Amino acid sequence: KEGVIVAGGRGQGSNRTQLNNPTGIVVDRLGTVYVADQRNNRVMRWYDSASYGDVIAGGLI
């Protein structure tokens, strides 16, 4: 399966397709990706095949 870029590559920022100093990443058994987005003070989640992430902790929900 080829990868799909869902965050990054568009510069730093706080949109749901941007990260600002990501410091950690976890992928669960279902393929959901979680990223600690340090400078935006949030944790982001991307479901498998998502085109943008959801804020699940911190930041503006």
UniProtKB/TrEMBL annotation:
<dbReference type="InterPro" id="IPR001258">
    <property type="entry name" value="NHL_repeat"/>
</dbReference>
<feature type="region of interest" description="Disordered">
    <location>
        <begin position="1"/>
        <end position="20"/>
    </location>
</feature>
<keyword id="KW-0677">Repeat</keyword>
<feature type="compositionally biased region" description="Gly residues">
    <location>
        <begin position="1"/>
        <end position="12"/>
    </location>
</feature>
<protein>
    <submittedName>
        <fullName>Uncharacterized protein</fullName>
    </submittedName>
</protein>
<dbReference type="Pfam" id="PF01436">
    <property type="entry name" value="NHL"/>
</dbReference>
<feature type="repeat" description="NHL">
    <location>
        <begin position="13"/>
        <end position="43"/>
    </location>
</feature>
